[in-house]
Amino acid sequence: MENKLQELTRKIYSEGVEKATEEASLILDKAQKEADDLKRQAQKEAEEIINEANKNAEDIKRNAESEMRMASKQAISALRQQIATLVTTKVVDTPVKEAVSDKAFMGEMIRIALENFGSDATLVMPEKDEKALEDYFGKRLNEVLKSGVEVRFDDKIKGGFKIGPKDNSYLISFTDEDFEAFFRSFMRPRSINLLFGAE
Q: What is the pTM of this model?
């Protein structure tokens, strides 16, 4: 009986150890599977984070390159405009100033303008040119004034003249600024084309 009891005890013990070993193996397998799943998930998330970071870096690089290209184009365009303005100013300003300060030339322009307006004209001249106008026109100035033309002098006009009807409904401006603006607008595209070629 004691043998049977020992054998039964050994059998129970063996079955218990075997069952515990199986359970331990199942627990270890399950733990290993969960660890593998966690590792795969962590790797997947790490790859997604790296891919997103690479995509963001590419976007930032692309945007920076685009902004640099745009900024360089704007800088080149602004530089071209400044160069064209300097060249146009050199080409236009001095000859226009010389023409406007040429009393004979301006006197002829005034004469032609007065012929077209007749006696219903108001002539506005630079205040500084009052004496020169009297010297240039001499006796003819009295004739012009007697014909009904109104002559005024304005210190805001630096050179040239303005003419219009006596009712001041409008004035046509032939000042040095007007001539410079006209010739600059005329010369500017040609200067750009000459300097940089057709675009």
A: 0.47
